[in-house]
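wait is this the right file?? whatever heres the structure
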């Protein structure tokens, strides 16, 4: 691990997991570490036997940074020169460019994807005792923000093909206390918003898209985060569009909501020291806005690359005992995660790790089984089956042909020997 750190491996935890099957032998091995493409080539020698391992990175931010380094340096230097580190001119420029990209009139950049969801609920006046319909198969933040406001998440099962909220289950979950519907566009593909919005309209409910993993994807030709009254995304570094820290954005077509959100983002004030409502410190740092402006220059190209790589990956995995991502005909996916379904997941993970391929599970525990959100009476069969079977593989727009070969060969070997 020490030698791997010296050659600049981005995530020591992923690498240490990849070498864990060999850990007991490392002290007796002669080893050499060579930076190579999107990872590290490792040569391990035991007596007279030599085997080459290639420890792949789960996400490669360094390759992207190399492409835009000049723009990054110039934009960051501009912030350092003008010194407006909070709500600087880069923030406004970023909001204008993001709004134009999504195709809505209003965008607010904020401190994180979690805060984006929280602020969206606050702008709608969600409070104690009210209910928000959402999915049980997502990252914790989706339901966490509901509970933080004293409201209650009401879980609906997901579509077994897309893993997104199943519109067919929403009507039965609506009660007089229901205030909104919060679908997640999981793994990079939008939920079925036409069907969801139809149910919402019949009951007079707003829809909030959690597009943390789907920014850049399209649904019937329209961009994620521009499909509902409120759309939220995350700029966490690993997201399709990520900064170098935490960040997020809220999109809306409603000018009144946009004004409320600007106030909520800045402690509930619209004029300095006059606080009309409760808010939070939800501002995005100007330096992060500068980073995102540099990344936006190549984002559409990266989205195209993600779509092409995802399709090629799925095609090459055909015939193996895995379920590849299913993309609806009227949609595109940015593959925020490239996630399979596999049998014997732990065995597959162990074998892939031995082959130098890191993995992750998004997500092993349904939200309603989490201790902080426990609803023991809830049982969603599709969600619970997926939680046992999903497995995410390395994926980013800078995967090389060799990377793809290694991934395909690794999945083939791991699923046949698991």
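ok assuming it is, sequence goes like this
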């Amino acid at each position: 691990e020490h030698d791997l750190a010296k050659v600049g491996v981005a995530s020591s935890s992923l690498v240490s997991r990849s070498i864990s099957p060999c850990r007991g032998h490392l002290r007796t091995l002669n080893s050499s570490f060579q930076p190579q493409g999107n990872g590290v080539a490792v040569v391990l020698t035991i007596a007279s036997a030599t085997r080459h391992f290639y420890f792949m990175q789960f996400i490669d931010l360094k390759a992207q940074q190399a492409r835009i380094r000049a723009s990054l340096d110039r934009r960051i230097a501009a912030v350092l020169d003008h010194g407006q580190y909070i709500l600087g001119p880069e923030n406004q420029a970023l909001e204008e460019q993001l709004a134009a990209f999504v195709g809505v009139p209003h965008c607010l950049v904020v401190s994180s994807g979690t805060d984006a969801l929280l602020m969206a609920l606050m702008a709608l006046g969600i409070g104690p005792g009210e209910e928000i319909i959402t999915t049980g198969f997502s990252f914790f933040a989706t339901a966490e923000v509901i509970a933080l406001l004293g409201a209650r998440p009401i879980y609906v099962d997901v579509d077994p093909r897309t893993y997104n909220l199943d519109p067919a289950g929403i009507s039965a979950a609506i009660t007089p206390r229901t205030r909104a519907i919060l679908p997640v566009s999981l793994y990079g593909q939008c939920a079925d918003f036409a069907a969801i919005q139809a149910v919402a309209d019949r009951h007079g409910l707003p829809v909030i898209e959690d597009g943390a993993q789907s920014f850049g994807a399209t649904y019937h030709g329209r961009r994620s985060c521009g499909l509902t009254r409120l759309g939220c995304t995350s700029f966490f570094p690993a997201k399709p569009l990520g900064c170098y820290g935490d960040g997020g954005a809220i999109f809306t077509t409603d000018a009144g909501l946009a004004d409320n959100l600007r106030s909520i983002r800045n402690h509930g004030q619209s004029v300095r020291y006059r606080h009309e409502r409760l808010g939070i410190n939800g501002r995005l740092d100007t330096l992060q806005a500068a980073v995102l402006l540099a990344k936006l220059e190549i984002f559409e190209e990266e989205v195209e690359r993600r779509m092409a790589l995802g399709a090629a990956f799925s095609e090459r995995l055909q015939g193996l005992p895995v379920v590849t991502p299913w993309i609806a005909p009227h949609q595109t996916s940015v593959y925020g995660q490239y996630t399979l379904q596999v049998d014997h997941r732990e065995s597959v993970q162990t074998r892939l790790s031995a082959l130098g391929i890191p993995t992750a599970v998004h997500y092993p525990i349904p939200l309603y089984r989490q201790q902080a959100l426990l609803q023991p009476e809830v049982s969603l069969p599709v969600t619970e089956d997926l939680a046992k079977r999903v497995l995410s593989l390395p994926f980013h727009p800078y995967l090389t042909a060799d990377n793809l070969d290694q991934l395909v060969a690794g999945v083939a070997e791991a699923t046949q020997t698991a």
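The longest helix spans residues 286-316. so i think its the right one actually
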